[in-house]
Specification:
This protein has 10 helices and 6 strands, in the order αββααααβαααααβββ. The chain is an alpha/beta fold.
Amino acid sequence: MKRTSIYLIILTITAAVAYGDIVELTLHPVKATETAQKYRLLPKAEELRDANAVPLYEKAIQLFQEDYDTEQIDQSLKIPLDKLPHQQVQSTLQQFKTIMQLIEQATKCKHCNWPYVEEDEEDTLLENLRKYRKFVFIFELQARLQIAQGQFDMALGTIQTGLAMAKHLGDGPNLLHGLVGVAMSARMLRPLEQFIQRSDAPNLYWALQNLPKPFIDLTERTVLESPETREKMHLLMNRLDRHVAALQCVEAIRLFAGTHKGNLPNRLEEITEVAIPNDPVTDQPFEYLVKDQTAILKAAPPKGGNERDSIQYELTMQE
């Protein structure tokens, strides 16, 4: 397969994440607690064992059978949480239990030594990466079920596993590893949008703050690419980091409401409880305004992007 064809496929994969849409979030005030500051979205260094994750990932790939009902999983990822059929979803997830356990073990390894794949063998690499991408949908579904059941610690553990797997892939030696890792990471941020809307969910400001920046760095792997390709790859990388920063702003707004009688700030500058991250694409503050008791947090498309590369949250606060 020609290199340009591979990149077109990857760009199609990454475009499947619904950036550019207006995302409406109903939030609840929450105060800062020491417990909330201990949450992590990647495993802590002291939790990692001195082993190579690749054999465990490869074993998961070998066990993976693609004759499952993909349409049922797709539908379950779109259903509102209050309408999620718990027993049906649990039954669906059960068939992947061994694979999910292997992946969780892999994400707790200190090393992930993917072999470099030559260009004439990238067809096989791409096929395997497609399977890893399907694993993300499974972890996303499990996280949604756990959030719907109020199992917040378990949900964060599932999201952590999904993000750690995406990070392992994203840090692989081939550019294809990096691109698919970016796409997978973006998918695993979606359950967080459901998580932070629960009235009794802990605040994840510090968990988001502690993520690496950039989360996946494609810079060195794009040095030999054309300027146009480099621009597209960096746009995808920066778009992911913008998503993380925007969610961190949302959590800062929840903290503000927790100490201001449930009110939204009129300006981001009013938030003094924690630092507000800038948009990492522009290094400028996110756009923010309050209209009719709804706050709008957004970032326009970056240079070289289009409306699909913008981000916009509409936030309402409930007691």
